[in-house]
Each structure stands twice: as structure tokens, then as C-alpha cells.
Amino acid sequence: MKNKNTYDVVVIGSGPGGYSAALRAAQLGFDTAVVEKDETLGGVCLNVGCIPSKALLDSSERYHHARHKMAEHGIEINDVRQDLGAMMSRKNKVVAELTKNLWQLLARSGIDIIRGTARLEAPDRVLVTRNEKTGAKTGVKDRELGLAARYILLATGSLPNSLPGLDFDGKNIITSTQALEFDTVPERLGIVGAGYVGLELGSVWQRLGSQVTVMETLPRAADSADGQLARTLTRLLKNQGMDIRLKTTVTQAVVKDSQVAVSVKAKDTSEILFFDRLLVSVGRHPRLEGLGLEDLGVKKDPDSGKIIVDAAYRTSVSSIYAIGDIIPGPMLAHKASAEGVAAAECMAGLPGEVNYDTIPSVIYTSPEAAGAGMTQEDAKKRNIPFLTGTYPFSGTGRARCFGETDGFVKLIVHEKSDRILGVHIIGPRASDMIAQGVLAMESGTTAGDLARMVHSHPTFSEAMQEAAAAVRNKSDQTRK
């Protein structure tokens, strides 16, 4: 690190939002530093979230295919065995390589990386306290570093929510972080919460041999997704053997003899279920403790606890900006990245902005489920006249060849203008296909335009074209 303590921009947090903001700020000519309290860069997403979970999802899916699906392709594999240690080592290697690459990327961009815990001392000053793990190894004087900054960007991410009566112990009652580090496959895994994280991690361990039970208070899993998509995903996961119990409340969990006794209520019945591990996955809350926001008068929403920002991502203190999980909106890595870029551009006087109406979200189960824009329920609530077009993957040649025919593509389209309002996909490669839907909505493409676009044959994306054609056919019928 350079021997200096004055910067144009100091970013607190090196997750997707923080490092994206720092890189864009450096590109715009700002002298930039990133403060990170952990040993590695990348935040929750890279270290204990998006990346390691997808590595395990991919490994477990290959294992499942080798055991159950390769024979139909004429490939006989005898004595298929899993090596959980090797899976974990591969996962850790993927994370290590990406964190190293991120460090090199920031350094090559001229960004100073300061390791320590940050606290705001003034609207233009950050105090960094370092320890043996994050930097200085000598006396108290070396452990504190004051940084002066023209702009300060908060990108500190989030922490898992807890529930009363379900206290985390890190071994039996766990967060998603511990669920990525098992040294053995639990025979029985309970999961509280049928959101994206719960369903993804449930899929990992079910494929590897766990009996997985998911308990959700709400009447449907993946509640924020389009209703038709969520219902289809629930049915398919149940067909795979996942026990998904909706309208079920977990009231208490007690560890007895290395087992977790879980008290649940559903309708008028109560029972106790026993698991080897209990994953509590009921959302996250902003990580703001110790930043000193109250002393500076940075305003937060009283209900969510998130920081209030304006259209330029400025907080109530004009030199302090905030992005990602600590401000309103979905807690998604790519949402934070987009906000980080926009915030840096706003600091430079450019019109940085994020279109929240088209931010995609993905559930990396098998099949994958992805959505962007309005759901059918959204359109109804807003009294928007709309048409839908759906097309099943079972109707596409590529899906038939691939052996993955479950799911569909669904478009929500304005009845009058033919503009695409929402795209929802459940099926193979949904996480990649959703980008076409986002592009269509961002560019104002109509369903008719999309239906006329020539798609390669045979591909999964033809289902998108066919769904658009189904809307056009409905529109023609309406005009008649």
C-alpha cells in the first residue's frame, strides 16, 4: 500500500458492489481505496455465498447425473461414488482463484487495498482499525489509520437473519455459511425457509444423499417469483424427493444428543421433527453495526433498518453514499454491482442509474428458475392490461436432445403496446436465457419483434421465440 491517507473515494466493503464501485471510480480518474475487514476480498458473495454455492450445485448435479441420467444416453457408469472432501476442495479452489484474481484486478487498476475494520469519524474521514489478520502486526500506533476522503461509499453487505427459539450454534443449527462446509452428508437436513438460498442448498445436499425437509410459513415457496413458476418449481422439487411443507411454522429447535428436535405447527396440528442439521434461511439484514452512522446523522428506514438514499445513492450526509444490501431493494449481487457503478458515475457528475424494473433473479436449482420484470400477479395488482405467452421446453428439439424437458418460458406483455413487461423461465439454462429477456425489456422490444427474430435451431432459446409468438397469436385473436 502507498504511504498515504488521502483519497477521492474510500469504499468500505469489497463485495460485488464495493469492488465494482471502486473499479468504476478508478476508471473515472478518482484516487480510490477499498477497506476490507476480512482476510480475503469479495464479500459474502464470493467467499460464502454465490460462488461456493454454485460450485457445490454444479458438483452435486454432475454426481446426480452420473448416478441417474447417463444411462439413458447410453453411458454406463458402474460404482459411482462421491468424494465430499474433493468436492469441498474444488469449491475452495474456485473461491481462492477468484479472490486472488480480484485482488490483482484492483491492484492493477491502481486501487489501494486497506485491510481492517472501518468506522466513520466525520463526513470526510474514515478510521481503520487493523489487526494481525488484516494488516499491522506491531503496536497500537500502527493499528489505526485515518483516511480522508472526498466521497465515502458504504458497501458492507448483509448478515443472516435469526429466529426466536432457533439460536445458531454453528454446528447443528446453522446459517448458509456452515451449510457450505459440511464434512459429511447429513442423513436428515431440515431447512427453515423456502427462499432461493434454502431451495438451492437443499438441492445440493439432497443430490448427495440427504433427506431434505423444507419448512415455510408462507403459502408458497420462492414467494417473490411469478406464481406459475413458483408452483411448477415446487412440484418438480417434490418429484425429486424434497419434502416441502408450506404454511408450516417452526417455533423452537433444541439440540439433543447431536440431533435437532424441531417443533413445527401446520394448520391445527403440531409435531416434533428430528434432523442432524437445521439450516435457518429466512432472509438477511444490513450489516451496519460499528460504522458510526448514528453519530453522523445518516438516516435509516425505521422498518427495514436500511439506509435511505436518493437517486444518486447519496445518504442524508451528502459526501456519504451507500449501495447494495444496506439500501432498499432485493439483496442480489448483480443489483449491488450495478448500483456501485452508478454511484461512482454520480460522484463524477454523470447520469448513473439502475433500472430496477428489469433486474433479473435466479434460483439455481435443477431445473433453474429465473425471472425479470413484472410477474403476472404484479400486472394484476397494478390493473395493467396484459397478455401472457408460454411455451414448454418439451416442445423444443434441443431440450429433447439434452434430456431436460421440464419447465417453460412465460412472457408478460402489455395488451395495447405489445411491450414486454416480464419474462419468467423455468428450465435448462434459465440463468443464461434470462439475459435475452432483460435486453428485450431494456430496449423496448415488443413480443412481435421477439417472435420475428431468427433464433438458432435447435437451441433452448427457441422457447423464448415461441412464447413471444404465442403472445402474438393471442393479440391477433383479440383484434379479431
Summarize the model shown.
The chain is an alpha/beta fold. The chain has 15 helices and 22 strands. The longest helix has 25 residues, at 84-108.
Describe this structure in words.
By secondary structure, the protein is α/β, with parallel strands linked by helices. The protein is built from 15 helices and 22 strands. The protein has helices at 16-27, 43-48, 50-68, 84-108, 140-143, 176-179, 196-207, 227-239, 293-296, 333-347, 376-381, 397-402, 430-443, 447-452, 462-479, and strands spanning 6-12, 32-36, 112-115, 117-122, 125-129, 144-154, 158-160, 173-174, 188-192, 211-215, 243-245, 248-256, 259-266, 269-275, 277-280, 284-286, 320-322, 361-363, 368-373, 386-392, 408-414, 420-427. Strands 1, 2, 3, 4, 5, 6 and 17 form a 7-stranded mixed β-sheet that branches. Helix 1 packs parallel to helix 10, helix 3 (50-68) runs antiparallel to helix 4 (84-108) and helix 3 runs parallel beside helix 7 (196-207). The longest helix is centred in the N-terminal third of the chain and has 25 residues, at 84-108. It is globular and about 65 Å long. The N and C termini lie far apart (70 Å).
